[in-house]
Amino acid sequence: MLKDLLLKNRSYRGYDETRAVTRKELIDLVEHARLTPSSVNKQALKYYLACEREETDRIQPLTAWAKALKKEVPYKGHCPRAFIVICQDTAISPALDAYLKDVGIVAQTMLLRAAELGLGGCMIGSFQKEALQQVLKLREQLRPLLVLAIGKPDETIVLENVNEQGDTTYYRDAQDVHHVPKRSVRELVINGEDS
């Protein structure tokens, strides 16, 4: 069951804009994230939820997606219907680097839950932090660390083995299918002969 969710949980860069994402669904994602482990149990992360079109339209231009692709994504009319901005509350802890693993844990947890709900998402680390903080009117103590795009996926993503040259660059073919090369277990395990 976990493997099925992992296979559904891709970095989607195209969404069906006719499928709204509700605040209740976003709260559900945060509910799952809050159950995860936290460094020294500080629970220093906070979440800004955006699912109204006016808000998502302000956030979208402040993000940068899939630099390896030749075309800019998401395409017009295929943007996510929601965003979750993962922030660190520096009043709880000012050490921004100390909680980066927590960011990864909660982001992956939320995206796995989204997959379970028939949604998908993408972790966006490339965004205009200061502009986003201003647009969302976040208090100075809340520092945006990662943006999650959330919506109903509207694209095909195929996993494949890394080629003989070892190239892991993702790409789109002539039919706009998104290909993601993955290293083999044999290449990942550093001790012993595993396949």
UniProtKB/TrEMBL annotation:
InterPro entries attached to this UniProt entry: Nitroreductase, Nitroreductase-like, Put_nitroreductase_C_bac
Gene3D superfamilies: NADH Oxidase, putative fmn-dependent nitroreductase like domains
UniProt KW Ribosomal protein keyword: no
Signal sequence residues: none
Pfam families from the UniProt entry: Nitroreductase
Source taxon at top rank: Bacteria
Record-annotated Nitroreductase domain positions: 10-67, 100-152
UniProt entry keywords in alphabetical sequence: Flavoprotein, FMN, Oxidoreductase
Cofactor: FMN
GO molecular function: oxidoreductase activity
Family as reported in the entry's similarity comment: Belongs to the nitroreductase family.
Protein name: Nitroreductase
Organism, as annotated: Clostridium innocuum
